[in-house]
């Protein structure tokens, strides 16, 4: 069987992700945000005060990537790190007022990108597409069982 990128789910998903990222970056750059910090902000906007370990688990990324992202976010005035009052070894990540104020315009930008990308699909197709993506993501998650 010959490999065809036009029929490869992985290739198409990667291409789609790059297109989404490029469009979103163009829309959030004027807000002072980047594609690298946006996922962490999405999680923190749902509820801040998380530890780095909790953010890593929520975003399914590597520890060094998260450490670099948090360093940039702290430098850019988006987060503050504070010691956990119950565990002196842990730090909790808190949004600044600057980051809180960016929630509405940044999520509006993401909503606009999604709307543009899915405009050619019916409401049923959009729901099916998103449901299938969730299913594929779940299928690629590592098993929790140790073999």
UniProtKB/TrEMBL annotation:
<dbReference type="GO" id="GO:0003700">
    <property type="term" value="F:DNA-binding transcription factor activity"/>
</dbReference>
<dbReference type="InterPro" id="IPR036390">
    <property type="entry name" value="WH_DNA-bd_sf"/>
</dbReference>
<dbReference type="InterPro" id="IPR000835">
    <property type="entry name" value="HTH_MarR-typ"/>
</dbReference>
<keyword id="KW-0805">Transcription regulation</keyword>
<dbReference type="Pfam" id="PF12802">
    <property type="entry name" value="MarR_2"/>
</dbReference>
<dbReference type="InterPro" id="IPR023187">
    <property type="entry name" value="Tscrpt_reg_MarR-type_CS"/>
</dbReference>
<keyword id="KW-0804">Transcription</keyword>
<feature type="domain" description="HTH marR-type">
    <location>
        <begin position="9"/>
        <end position="138"/>
    </location>
</feature>
<keyword id="KW-0238">DNA-binding</keyword>
<dbReference type="GO" id="GO:0003677">
    <property type="term" value="F:DNA binding"/>
</dbReference>
<protein>
    <submittedName>
        <fullName>MarR family transcriptional regulator</fullName>
    </submittedName>
</protein>
<dbReference type="InterPro" id="IPR036388">
    <property type="entry name" value="WH-like_DNA-bd_sf"/>
</dbReference>
């Amino acid at each position: 069987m010959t490999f065809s990128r036009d029929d490869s789910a992985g290739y198409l998903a990667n291409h789609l992700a790059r297109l989404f990222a490029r469009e979103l970056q163009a829309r959030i750059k004027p807000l002072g945000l980047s594609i690298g910090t946006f996922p962490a902000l999405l999680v923190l906007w749902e509820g801040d005060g998380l530890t780095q370990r909790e953010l890593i688990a929520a975003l399914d990324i590597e520890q060094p990537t998260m450490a670099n992202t948090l360093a940039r976010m702290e430098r850019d005035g988006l987060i503050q790190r504070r010691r956990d009052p119950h565990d002196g070894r842990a730090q909790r990540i808190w949004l600044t007022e600057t980051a809180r104020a960016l929630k509405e315009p940044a999520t509006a930008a993401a909503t606009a990108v999604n709307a543009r990308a899915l405009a050619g699909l019916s409401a049923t197709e959009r729901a099916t597409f998103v449901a299938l993506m969730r299913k594929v993501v779940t299928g690629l998650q590592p098993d929790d069982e140790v073999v």
